[in-house]
């Protein structure tokens, strides 16, 4: 019986450590109220974007990778519901950033996916590293004052609905 209890105890400890590692790796470098980090996006297709270009706008920063399954689900939902609703809104800006991808990678990827929103490269994780160390997809919503009002790591339909509500609230 003692041996079984030790094995169960060991299994619980391993499980707890695994959950703790997950929590640490999915942590954001930003917390609610933090300002939009200073960065420059350079795309041969969509041009250059800096925080100065975003002043006074609600900004959604979406970080993804082309190989990431949950990212594919989230981007499909962005294409289906989010982007059609907000692409014409002068007070909103969507920045979808491909972690560790070049313009060429994103062009090839989008030839398959046919997304209508811009995809910005971040080949060296320079922009991603301002937001987090690991874990994608990630979404960061900044209000018109440039303050973080919502963030999420991972994808679920429920989380995506929360994001849509946060966008609506930020645009009011």
If you had to describe this structure to a student in words, what would you say it looks like?
The protein is of the alpha/beta class and 172 residues long. It has a single domain, classed as Glutaredoxin (3-Layer(aba) Sandwich). It is 42% helix and 21% strand. The protein has helices spanning 2-25, 69-86, 103-113, 128-131, 157-171, and strands spanning 41-43, 47-49, 58-64, 92-99, 119-122, 138-142, 148-153. It has a 5-stranded mixed beta sheet. A two-stranded antiparallel sheet has the order 1-2. Strand 3 (58-64), helix 2 and strand 4 (92-99) form a beta-alpha-beta unit. The longest helix has 24 residues, at 2-25. The radius of gyration is 18 Å and the shape is globular. It starts with a helix and ends with a helix. It holds the Pfam family AhpC-TSA. It comes from Phocaeicola coprophilus DSM 18228 = JCM 13818. Residues 1-23 form the signal peptide. This is Redoxin family protein. InterPro entries: AhpC/TSA (IPR000866), Thioredoxin-like_sf (IPR036249), Thioredoxin_CS (IPR017937), Thioredoxin_domain (IPR013766), Thioredoxin_ResA/DsbE_sf (IPR050553).
Largest sheet: 5 strands, mixed
Q: Average the pLDDT over all residues and give the rounded result.
A: 87
User: Unreliable stretches, pLDDT < 50, 5 or more residues?
Assistant: 7-25
What is the level-2 CATH architecture name?
3-Layer(aba) Sandwich
The CATH topology corresponds to Glutaredoxin
* Global outline: globular
Radius of gyration: 18 Å
Give the % helix: 40-55%
InterPro entries: AhpC/TSA, Thioredoxin-like_sf, Thioredoxin_CS, Thioredoxin_domain, Thioredoxin_ResA/DsbE_sf
Pfam families: AhpC-TSA (PF00578)
GO molecular function: antioxidant activity; oxidoreductase activity
Protein name: Redoxin family protein
